Amino acid sequence: MKIQGKVDDLPHGSLAHNLMVEIKNLSKKFNHIVALNQVSMQIVQGEAAAIVGDNGSGKSTLIKMLTGDLFPDTGEIVIANQSFRRLSPRKAMELGIRVMYQDLSLDNYKNSSENIFLGEELMQGPFLAKKRMLTEARQLLDHLHIQTPDLSEVVGNLSGGQRQGVAIARALRKDARILILDEPTAAMGMTETERVFRMLQQVKKEKKTMVIVSHNLLQVFDIADRIFVMKAGRCITNVLTKDTNPYELHTMIKEGL
Ligand SMILES: Nc1ncnc2c1ncn2[C@@H]1O[C@H](COP(=O)(O)OP(=O)(O)OP(=O)(O)O)[C@@H](O)[C@H]1O
Ligand SMILES: [Mg+2]
């Protein structure tokens, strides 16, 4: 196995110019609990990066800093050549960071099209351009190969995987540069999980940068180009997926390097 300390260590150094996000020495304490301890990561444009680690290792805390939901005590995040000590949710949004939360934040009483355009509805004069939203929603879902039977059905009646599809489409609708997913399939059965990962494969084909937190190592292996391993608040290593295997990764998560 080849362990990569930093992206700059890669033989083709040009990758460093394709950096999408640079996380530099982020630390965060909650009272006495050290949630993050000097975490650094480099996320390359167009790559699917996975973050793995045991429960409580700091993955969600890190994700919340990328989305502006939590500020670090120390450290900074560099995105698009701008450095942030305190990245706000609004700024993160402006920079194209899109996150899908586990609860998906969908409105169960609205249909797929209305959910995809939620908060940014298309208008025709003073009226909602419902037809146009339906057409564009259909195009977007087809483009991502997301199968949703009936766009006029309220999403409360859709399956978990279908709801996930709607949430992915919404996240990618406008100016998305990075899609962040924290445990996207945690509450799902096998079939739905597979379906969601198929959708994510499609997103990957679109060359979107992705950051996925998951405990499902097999799926991580299917989708990620690079895997960051967290342990007790530290990022202990990152490795190219092609240079490791699930067994080795499992050992690293449990026992460290
Ligand atoms: N708001 C908070 N207040 C107090 N402690 C917190 C808070 N958020 C996280 N922690 C603690 O910080 C540590 C890291 O939590 P975090 O949620 O980042 O872990 P995680 O890697 O996402 O775990 P999991 O795999 O279970 O989702 C844990 O010990 C957790 O209890
Ligand atoms: Mg978590």
Describe the protein's architecture and organization:
The protein contains eight helices and 13 strands. Helix 5 packs parallel to helix 6. It has 257 residues and is of the alpha/beta class. The protein has two domains: 3-96 and 177-255, Rossmann fold; 106-175, no CATH class. It has helices spanning 59-66, 89-94, 112-116, 130-143, 160-172, 190-205, 217-223, 246-255; strands at 3-4, 19-30, 33-44, 48-53, 74-79, 82-84, 97-100, 123-124, 127-128, 178-182, 209-213, 226-231, 234-240. Bound molecules: adenosine-5'-triphosphate (ATP) and magnesium ion. Adenosine-5'-triphosphate binds at residues 30, 33, 35, 53, 55-61. Magnesium ion is lined by residues 59-60, 182.
